[in-house]
Amino acid sequence: MPETEPAGDDRGALMSTVFGHMAAQALAAAVRLGVADRLGDHPRDAADVAADLGTDPDATRRLLRALAASGLATESRPGAFALTARGALLRTDRADSMADFVRMFLDPAMIGSWARLDESVRTGGPVFADLFGTDFFGHLAAHPELSRAFNASMRQGGRAAAALLPAVLDLSGARSVTDVGGGDGAVLAAVLSAYPGLRGVLFETPMAAADAGPVLEAAGVTDRCTIVTGDFFASVPAGSDVYLLKGVVHDWDDDRAATLLGHVRAVLPAHGRILVVEVVLPDTVDGTQPPMMYLGDLNMLVNVGGRERTEAEFRALCARAGLAVTRVTRLPEPVGLSVIEAVRAVQAVQA
């Protein structure tokens, strides 16, 4: 028997968690249908929204009520709904839209493995391939539309970090930076925009880099940036004094991550730096990282076999690759990421 009986709010919190996946599916349906775009700037009747979408009027009203109850809309009179500031982030015509992020992270390819989380906990490995016949990134490569959606979601989800990184990285003395696994180039574009004298290399797979051209062009940095395609588990292009890896290392287990970092070290000049931008978990769950970071860690487990790491684990991982961590800098809130700066271990010892 427990020493104390659970309070009513504890029961309510558990119920909210249980129903949380339903709220997420309502959100996903709203994005796939384009509900936010149809609501626009002014209150609209559910029946009119349904007519625009070609959906059932009663079911549309019920979906809109659920969105209103979740804080994404308001119902000013029976059947009339308007977006809240939070719900407006689902519109696709906004520069700060989160629609692609929601669409990707609630796609069956992303959430399907979660139903078998217990199996991943038993085995310590991902279950994605059991469901889809290949690993997560192989699945993206075989589905170009999904790969583009993934790139778009990474761009939307990482917008705040991309805006803060240039100042935190301090690249004032650098001549060239290679963004390893940089997706569509959104982060590299932000860095190059902040440092007009810097040249950049985007290193990605052909599929992942397919949308990089327009992103770099929109930022006005194409004349200072080269796109190189390849496999970072085979090699990494030489020639830069700074190598940036944002949201890449956590996709892989320790063996694969150490291999990747080792390839970067192999081309790192004596004065060079590696900048790894990732979540850094505290040694204990102390409230300094929000729950979603720990859920993200489980997402790495079930889908790709990667993991989020503590500072001590990053230091050990870098040491395996012949690197020494010289600094760990937490990005300002609300971005829950840190910059792990590392150099060649020999250089660190001599210093």
TrEMBL record:
Q: Which UniProt keywords apply?
A: Methyltransferase, S-adenosyl-L-methionine, Transferase
Q: Which InterPro entries match?
A: COMT-like, COMT_C, COMT_dimerisation, SAM-dependent_MTases_sf, WH-like_DNA-bd_sf, WH_DNA-bd_sf
Q: Which GO terms describe its molecular function?
A: O-methyltransferase activity; protein dimerization activity
Instruction: Describe the location of the O-methyltransferase C-terminal domain by residue ranges.
Output: 114-323
Active-site residue numbers: H250
Tell me where in this chain the O-methyltransferase dimerisation domain is found: 15-90
Give the protein's recorded name.
Methyltransferase
Q: Which PROSITE patterns match?
A: SAM_OMT_II
Example GO BP: methylation
Instruction: Output the superkingdom of the source species.
Output: Bacteria
